[in-house]
Amino acid sequence: LLYIVFYGVSRLILRSYLKPPKRYWEVNAGEENGEAENTDVSPNQDNISKEQPDKIRDERRQKKKRSHGSFISGKKDPFPGEAPIPNEQLKKFQRGEKFQVVIAFRLGKVKETILRSEAASDLALKQAARYDLLLPEESGFLEGDDDEDTCTILQEDIADAVDITSGAKYFNLHLTQFGPYRLDYSRTGRHLLLGGKRGHVSCIEWQTKNLTCEINVMETIHDVKWLHSEAMFAVAQKQWLYIYDSKGIELHCIKKFNNVLRMQFLPYHFLLATASATGFLQYLDVSVGKEVSAIGTKLGRLDVMAQNPHNAIVHLGHPNGTVSLWSPNQREPLVKMLCHRGGVRSLTVDRSGTYMVTSGLDRKLKVYDIRAFKALHSYFLPAGASCLSLSQRGLLSAATGDVVQVYRDVWGGGSMSKPYMAHRVRGAVWGVDYCPFEDVLGIGHEAGFTSMIVPGAGEPNFDALDMNPYRSTKQRQEWEVKALLDKVQPELIGLDPGLLSKVDQATFEQKHKERVEALGYDPLATEKFKPRLKKRGRSSAGAVERRKKKVAHEDQKDTIRKTVEERMERENERKVKAQEQAEHGTRTALDRFKK
Amino acid sequence: MKVKVLCRNPDDYVRETTRDIQRVPRNYDRTLHPFEVPREYTRALNATKMERLFAKPFVASLGGHRDGVSCLAKHAKSLSTVLSGACDGEVKVWNLSRRECLRTIPAHEGFVRAICSRFCGTSFFTVGDDKTVKQWRMEAPGYRVREEPLNTILGKAVYTGIDHHQSEGTFATCGQTVDIWDEQRTSPIRSFSWGVDSFSCVRYNPVETELLASCASDRSIVLYDMRESTPLKKVIMKLRSNTLCWNPMEAYNFTCSNEDYNLYTYDMRYLETPVTVHMDHVSAVLDVDYSPTGKEFVSASFDRTIRIFPKDKGHSREVYHTKRMQHVICVRWSADNKYVLSGSDEMNIRVWKANASEKLGVLTSREKAAVQYNQKLKAKFKNHPKVRRIAHHRHLPRDIFKQKRELRDMKEARRRKEQNVHKHSKPGSVPIVTEKEKHVVTVVE
User: Fold this and answer.
1) Cα A439 to Cα A425: distance, rounded to the nearest angstrom
2) To the nearest whole angstrom, how far is the Cα of A314 from the nearest Cα of chain B?
3) What are the ranges of the WD repeats (chain B) (predicted)?
4) CATH number belonging to domain B61-353
5) How do residues A255-297 score in pLDDT, each as one tens digit?
6) Any A CB within 8 A of B383 CB
7) What is the ipTM of this complex?
8) What's the domain count of chain A?
């Protein structure tokens, strides 16, 4: 990005140094004929010789450009061609490896198709990378003065230092009566859902501080979760799972889902995954209201749960220190990893699906690469972390008692001795969650709710076709229809979400099996040599073995002879060809008319 | 302390007035768009389902003939004009956009065998069972003026086919011989025959305009050069070909419709084996016509269906049938590549969409973009079993479905037999004959 900025700047500077274009009445009498011609032609030739011959389309485009401007004035473009794109930016948008087309590809049509599709994807890649420059917002940051740790900066100071709207994002809700609170932000980041342990549920449009609904369900609440939009939310109550609408009206009481402790919503699948005290992991399809699958994990009480936003796999943490990975399609866990020596207290997965962070009763905080299922780092936190959450830009918040600490660069191996930020709240922390597309961390605790400013946490540029915080009701409705049409079926949940686009290569055994079925016999099978029965003791076991040994290498002999012959033939052919070529020289296109 | 916190100005993200369109800021970062493959797959599946849902290919039926439609011809210049000839000797001129008959001409006694339009579109030629070739003006005669042909040529034998030169005033007819005529003369300037008694179809090559091809009743396809006095070469097949059509874009290729239920695409230069064998019909194929892009062709069959084949694929991508359509005699692909016309035994001409699920009329740019996006998705995921099953499913009338199954069983049995013979005979004594080689008897130069 910097490179491009410099490039643009230097371009501007250079332009200011160059003379203005010459007009036709300014031509000197002496230079008129010869020189004018020269200036016209030379840049053209220059450009042609500099051109890269690889892409015809680029060539054409350049030609067009040239014929537009530069020739009439005789001026040269100081930066010919397209502006370069830095490799890092390209890499960000690259999908998979480029296909290497073998020059001696025999199938012309296939080769052409591959080349064309490669060119198209190349163009798309470049355009996407170029578009990065046009993104309007930049992420936030917090830097201390010399000898000042950023973790000592108070929230009040930050709120004073920033503008009023941002400052208003730090606030406390004193709700001592029904606490401790669990919380959830809607996917747009506009709405906040709070659920107090003693039955208090409230939806707040937290930026305008507008209360949309407030109810008391008169039961214990274990967890609250927004469904696909801010019109509905699910509450895991003492016994059943309830779904309310944004006005607080009870829509469903789902008695198939009992004793739910934790919930996760998979937005692209419209699935609500619940983990219960009885050890059941259940999936509810909220678009049709059906239970997709119910898996008895047989792993005890499930109160630690997270989802991998990259592949919609549900991670469960267990009291024996293991973390298990689940999909709705399999009764057994896809993966079981032993992460901690004590029980797992909390876990979270980053949005690219690469890293998992867990904390356990052994007061350790561990970072795993869940593509390779390998531990990357292990940190020791003096008090251990009870709640973990990762922001869109990779900041980790860990709650220990009544203190929330935010760490930066956790998987880069940065030192965890000093947190990036820290904040003390009034009671033990019960839930932390980052607000999407905002620099805000929501903390639910015993004395209510605290919204904390964490500069650099949120993704600055949202994609309105995916999630638009500023969408109108009409846009939301339209998005809902589109999203429902694009609903991914639960069968497609697996460890690798890109598996569908990969070539399904049948193994040799599969192919062979199909061939045998089609032909009705096995073409590769060789008949076993069966020694004939002979009399007078010549068919004793030893004699039979001896006779078998005689022919043991017969079949191999044949194949060896064949391969040797083939090789000799090929060699001869090659020699003859080489000789011919040496005699005739290289063939030209006109040689085909010779007889 | 230096601090910056994300703070967006809503004015940058919300439209200014309610009359504006909504602002849609984009960010193409991959982590903001998870599940791209499963979502694309879902979209592709939906697009395929929609395609089958909207596949309503039948556009209109043009009724008015009093006997089976025997031949169809496109106007050389006008997209909306179509000529048709019937088995009772009537020729009708149709306006497709208004779906009405403009003119009715009692042209011949007995069948009208073939019609062709002159390259300039001012007149057209008909041949019939009454051994005449007639030239007619394209414009209707004035009020109360009788329909009279411009020219009439009386021949000695029945003419079965006619085709006009692309740019000159000559045309070719076929019957007992293939004749080349000058429009100004009443006798042929050249006559070709190669020991056969009758021909069923003659077609000029659209690019090498002096070249001709014809289908003969002795199971051969003969190639001619108009400038020479003798035919060039012919290929003899196992069964008779009914009609042929040149590929308008790759004019060295032609496709012929055969009595053995198949169509064969030949390369004119290598007649020994066809380039492709197109199978799917369950009865004799009667007519074939290429799309103007040369990528696909449509065939009409005695089995009461018409099928659309990609030029290089062995099986059809589309099959059209209705309960009322009987044996389809003739078929044409419209010059705008959008419609297919079929004329059948039960006196109707039917207009079909060439692309069954295409929306007719003007599309907005967003509709166009959506169509293109869906097409790309369908192409990307076409080999996935679910998508493939939906995209390939076609409903067939019960008898055709049964016949198809029967033919498949027969073919399978024959293949098995051949395999067994090959397996149990002396190596090399029974050669393996490919499907392409099976149907050609010989090539005569």
Assistant:
1) 18
2) 15
3) 62-104, 278-309, 321-362
4) 2.130.10.10
5) 999 999 999 999 999 999 999 999 999 999 999 999 999 999 9
6) no
7) 0.84
8) 2
